[in-house]
From TrEMBL:
<keyword id="KW-0808">Transferase</keyword>
<dbReference type="InterPro" id="IPR015424">
    <property type="entry name" value="PyrdxlP-dep_Trfase"/>
</dbReference>
<feature type="region of interest" description="Disordered">
    <location>
        <begin position="1"/>
        <end position="27"/>
    </location>
</feature>
<dbReference type="InterPro" id="IPR015422">
    <property type="entry name" value="PyrdxlP-dep_Trfase_small"/>
</dbReference>
<dbReference type="Pfam" id="PF01053">
    <property type="entry name" value="Cys_Met_Meta_PP"/>
</dbReference>
<dbReference type="GO" id="GO:0005737">
    <property type="term" value="C:cytoplasm"/>
</dbReference>
<dbReference type="GO" id="GO:0071266">
    <property type="term" value="P:'de novo' L-methionine biosynthetic process"/>
</dbReference>
<dbReference type="GO" id="GO:0019346">
    <property type="term" value="P:transsulfuration"/>
</dbReference>
<comment type="subunit">
    <text>Homotetramer.</text>
</comment>
<keyword id="KW-0486">Methionine biosynthesis</keyword>
<dbReference type="GO" id="GO:0030170">
    <property type="term" value="F:pyridoxal phosphate binding"/>
</dbReference>
<dbReference type="InterPro" id="IPR015421">
    <property type="entry name" value="PyrdxlP-dep_Trfase_major"/>
</dbReference>
<comment type="similarity">
    <text>Belongs to the trans-sulfuration enzymes family. MetZ subfamily.</text>
</comment>
<dbReference type="GO" id="GO:0071268">
    <property type="term" value="P:homocysteine biosynthetic process"/>
</dbReference>
<feature type="modified residue" description="N6-(pyridoxal phosphate)lysine">
    <location>
        <position position="230"/>
    </location>
</feature>
<keyword id="KW-0663">Pyridoxal phosphate</keyword>
<protein>
    <recommendedName>
        <fullName>O-succinylhomoserine sulfhydrylase</fullName>
        <ecNumber>2.5.1.-</ecNumber>
    </recommendedName>
</protein>
Amino acid sequence: MTSTTTTETFDSDPARPDSEPAIAGSEVGFATRAIRTGHLRTPESEHAEPIFTTSSFVFSSAAEAAARFAGDVPGNIYSRFTNPTVRAFEERLAALEGGESCVATASGMSAILAVCMGLLKQGDRILSSRSLFGSTTMLFNKYLARFGIETDYVPLSDPDAWEAAVDPRTRLFFCETPSNPLTEMADLSRLAEIAHRHGCLLAVDNCFCTPALQRPLELGADLVVHSATKYLDGQGRCVGGAVVGDRKLVGEEVFGVLRTAGPTMSPFNAWVFLKGLETLELRMLAHSERAAKLAIWLLEQPAVERVYYPGLADHPQHALVGTQQRTGGGIVSFDVRGGKPAAWSLIDATRLISITANLGDVKTTITHPGSTTHGRLKPEERAAAGIGDGLIRVAVGLESVGDIQADLARGLPRS
Ligand SMILES: *Cc1c(COP(=O)(O)O)cnc(C)c1O
């Protein structure tokens, strides 16, 4: 992906009710889709998108009720199945990712669970990047394994390792790029090619980049999953998730799990995410600009041993920035000299930055992965994953970058 002004046509999804986008068939740019797609104006002539807080919908007659239940006539029945506000968010995110269908979920984790339940069966295997959001690893290892779906792990940035690890039972490739917290990157086009050659699907957790910076479907991925909790909201208010892909995989299989098992998105949360999408591109570029400035400043600090940021020229997969991924993104990690005591005292010396493991907020956050997000790993597993005792992750917000630097400088070891 090299520009955000590429245009694509997008039209309605006949498999689902209420799916006619407001600008069906138009060829418009990313920013326009982020602002205009998905809202069907009601007879009240509202300008901003309304929130439909209703659990069920009424029918004009018993015959119409029967026809809707039978699927002969499109239309809402119950908000576990479809809801107009949720649908508006789904339409808009699908248009941004360049997918035919989107299904919104109660959280990022329920998006990943719905993909696995909808597309895998007992005996199938997942091939996944080793560096993965902690709860995703737990879901794969503890819960899916119980139902006979096992996972093999490979290094994210080594396509040959993926190729070598494919098993005849492998059905799904799964990765996050860039990784948390070390910002390693996968070559998505290559992974998609390997997956398809072996009859597998590629799912990408696009939480860190969002479609404003990276569109995995355009690179050959089959599915995109999101934790909308992070940058799609952008202001740390709601928990939610989504799956994007084609009509068959997402509009039928994943949607079927959602409407039956029920981890659907609430209309209020959908409305918050819908409005978040309107400023997504601006925010992602601003997060990236501040993160790049912070990364360069950190490189100059004597107490900082190493900086991890895709936008830096010495990043091992730097070549993918500007092609696969538009900018470096908002996450910067660094090793501070002095190990865990130095890292903890740096964190404790901050006054502005929030000490929290969340990310994707306008407020800058700081965390010590070794004792929080990656604290459950054994010391040797942490070392193998490259998570040092002095490692700190900063999710750069939208405050003035000079103030973020000054806040970190307070606790940097001197001499
Ligand atoms: C937060 C996160 C998730 C899980 O999302 P929730 O909304 O918290 O359920 C999944 N993947 C990544 C990369 C995340 O950062």
